[in-house]
From TrEMBL:
Family (UniProt): Belongs to the peroxidase family. XPO subfamily.
PROSITE patterns, sorted: PEROXIDASE_3 (PS50292)
One cellular-component annotation, GO: extracellular space
A molecular function (GO) term: metal ion binding
Entry keywords, A to Z: Disulfide bond, Heme, Iron, Metal-binding, Oxidoreductase, Signal
Protein name from the UniProt record: Thyroid peroxidase
Necessary cofactors: heme b
InterPro entries assigned to the protein according to its UniProt record, in alphabetical order: Haem_peroxidase_animal, Haem_peroxidase_sf, Haem_peroxidase_sf_animal
Pfam family, one: An_peroxidase
Record GO biological process: response to oxidative stress
Source organism of the structure: Sphaeramia orbicularis (orbiculate cardinalfish)
Length: 635
């Protein structure tokens, strides 16, 4: 083996196929999704239309709340999902060869796979438009020739939890989001707008005018364009935009502090060090604070377990079933109402609550209606929506979902089911067997899983055969494990994926030589609540932003929320001045004395030599006689 050459450099990389944990199931065994050919039978029956499943089982009228967790738990799920998966779509809605426009056809013509209505439904058009995911341009080598020929789908972002949704997954995108004129390694800010307290907003997209909605009561006013971030889905909903804004500000805050501490660092060094810290924050919040609340502790210990270091044999690539089914577990918990709260966590008198469909691609509401704080308080100060078998998806996402470039409201449940068939995902029972769970073979067994007799009977009536149940649907109807927010199947699939994302990432924050032990201890103090305190005008927070308690019970002043001491990062990855000397050195015309430069050269040589030693030098220290200052460099 050649030293320093990665054996699998494409694992987890952007623009690579999702991995398959089970072979795809297509009607022609290669590319046609289930339901493509009318009359095709599965276990003696036709598959139900996904719209029928959505309308007859998934629809919900009420909004039960979860007294244990805040709405932030739901929003973080969508946010971190956008750091892991982004399925490539077919490049256009029309086929060049056939000239068919997927927005205007109800026929199955590649790449169009419309969501058809049952005969009992009526309307202007008897289907919803649906365009298939783009096929991957290459696949991993496999000894199974049949599987090698099957259609695969592409993840266009890095699979790692690496804050790619803050920075982007391509060099071009990363460069476009940076303030290259600054020596502080910061991200570019909005040049036109600030929030009410003068804090920065994300920059606007370059292509103007953008498709984002505008204030209907101010048609002649200044446009508020779509925001630009490392992930183009930043504008899909206001809570998502809020979290993007939070970490964009946190990068710039950390970069400013690192530059103050290490004034000799180049802009590139500051940017990369700040980015490294932001990536670690995403990993810590997700794995330490978020996942144990989604999985019960027993499932977390079984499927993920304690960290034992980087394992180069583990493929961290996102799996197709994770991206297309398991990590869509949170869609039933989407609230139909966006709560906006004031400083006392009461309904905001100036900015009332909004229906979900009013928040989609409506960034003007952040700029013109109080900034991100009213929305953020609603995310941490309101109980999350939970689900039950007879209350799965709200009307806001079943009838009023807004998708850019589609001139009609969509149905999220139907989209999820159709996407699973588009990707050739095996059925619910196949995945239960994969996870070591018993397949559902009888109505009584289904009733024990769903815990609702009428819903179980309705499922069998619609699907006709239990082996025909779609995996996403099967996963969300399972009763939750105790102290969990998902059932046995999704616990398995999500746990398996999260362990792979952690153990197969050689830059995971706990991995050897990524951070020093002191830095790891300091990073462990981080919390989403602290990040909120540092980047907004919110003065009181719950110490765990994912936990729900009615204000003011359990809330603390921001001064009492632990913070990271960035002084411990002053000696990482560069030759550094002692803390606090930057201002002194600015008075010197060259910044430092010739003697100091000589000292840096000496330390540089020691550091270079240290890389080839078989023992560890923790630090090199010396005392400057004229100033009586002690200089240390961690190597």
């Amino acid at each position: 083996m050649i030293p320093f050459v990665r054996q699998n450099p494409l694992w987890g990389a952007a623009n690579t196929p999702f991995v398959r944990w089970l072979p795809a199931e297509y009607e022609d065994e290669e590319r046609e999704p289930k339901g493509w050919n009318p009359g095709r039978l599965y276990n003696g029956f036709q598959l139900p239309l996904v719209r029928q499943v959505s309308q007859e089982i998934l629809r919900s009228c009420s909004k039960p709340s979860d007294d244990a967790f805040s709405q932030m738990l739901v929003e973080w799920g969508q946010y971190i999902n956008h750091d892991i998966t982004f399925t490539a779509q077919s490049p256009g809605t029309a086929m060049r060869m056939s000239g068919v426009d997927c927005l205007n056809t109800c026929e199955n013509v590649h790449p169009c796979f419309p969501i058809k209505f049952s005969q009992m439904q009526c309307g202007e058009q008897d289907c919803l438009p649906f365009t298939r995911s783009a096929p991957a341009c290459f696949v991993n080598c496999t000894s199974d020739v049949r599987q090698a020929l099957q259609r695969q789908q592409m993840n266009i972002i890095t699979s790692f939890i690496d804050a790619s949704l803050v920075y982007g997954s391509t060099p071009k995108q990363q460069a476009s989001l940076r303030d290259l004129s600054s020596d502080e390694g910061k991200l570019a800010v909005n040049e036109r707008l600030k929030d009410p307290k003068g804090r920065d907003y994300l920059p606007f997209v370059a292509s103007l005018p953008s498709p984002c909605r505008q204030d209907p009561n101010d048609v002649d006013g200044e446009r508020v364009e779509c925001f630009a971030a490392g992930d183009t889905r930043v504008n899909e909903g206001l809570p998502l935009t809020v979290l993007h804004t939070l970490f964009f500000r946190e990068h710039n805050r950390i970069a400013g502090e690192l530059k103050r501490i290490n004034c000799h660092w180049s802009s590139e060094t500051v940017y990369q060090e700040a980015r490294k810290i932001i990536g670690a924050l995403h990993q810590i919040i997700t794995m330490r604070d978020y996942m144990p609340k989604i999985l019960d502790q027993e499932s977390f210990d079984h499927y993920i377990g304690p960290y034992e270091g980087y394992d180069e044999t583990v493929d961290p690539s996102a799996s197709n079933v994770f991206a297309t089914a398991a990590f869509r577990f949170g869609h039933p918990t989407i609230s139909p109402i966006l709560m906006r709260l004031d400083e006392k966590f009461q309904e905001h008198k100036c900015f009332p609550h909004l229906r979900l469909h009013q928040t989609l691609f409506s960034q003007w509401r952040i700029v013109k209606e109080g900034g991100i704080e009213p929305i953020l308080r609603g995310m941490i100060g309101v109980a999350a929506r939970t689900v039950s078998p007879d209350m799965l998806v709200t009307e806001e996402v079943a009838q009023k979902l807004v998708v850019l470039n589609i001139p009609r409201e969509m149905d999220l449940g139907s989209l999820n089911l159709q996407r699973g068939r588009d990707h050739g995902l095996p059925g619910y029972n196949d995945w239960r067997v994969f996870c070591g769970l018993s397949p559902i073979k009888t109505l009584d067994h289904l009733k024990s899983i769903v815990k609702d007799t009428s819903v179980a009977e309705k499922i069998l009536k619609i699907y006709k055969h239990l082996d025909n149940i779609d995996v996403w649907f099967g996963g969300i109807i399972e009763s939750f494990n105790p102290n969990s927010r998902i059932g046995p199947l999704f616990s398995c699939l999500m746990g398996k994926q999260m362990k792979a994302l952690r153990d197969g990432d050689r830059f995971w924050w706990e991995a050897e030589n990524v951070f020093t032990q002191q830095q790891k201890a300091e990073l462990s103090k981080t919390s989403l609540s602290r990040i909120i305190c540092d980047n907004t005008d919110i003065k009181e927070v719950h110490p765990d932003a994912f936990r729900f308690e009615k204000y003011p019970s359990g809330y603390l002043c921001c001064d009492d929320i632990p913070s990271i001491n960035l002084e411990l990062f002053c000696l990482t990855g560069a030759l550094l001045l002692p803390a606090g000397t930057c201002e002194e050195n600015k008075s010197h015309p060259r910044g430092t004395t010739l003697a100091t430069v000589g000292i840096y050269v000496l330390i540089y040589m020691i550091c270079k030599f240290h890389k080839h030693m078989r023992f560890n030098i923790l630090a090199v220290c010396f005392t400057s006689v004229p100033s009586d200052k002690t200089y240390c460099v961690h190597v």
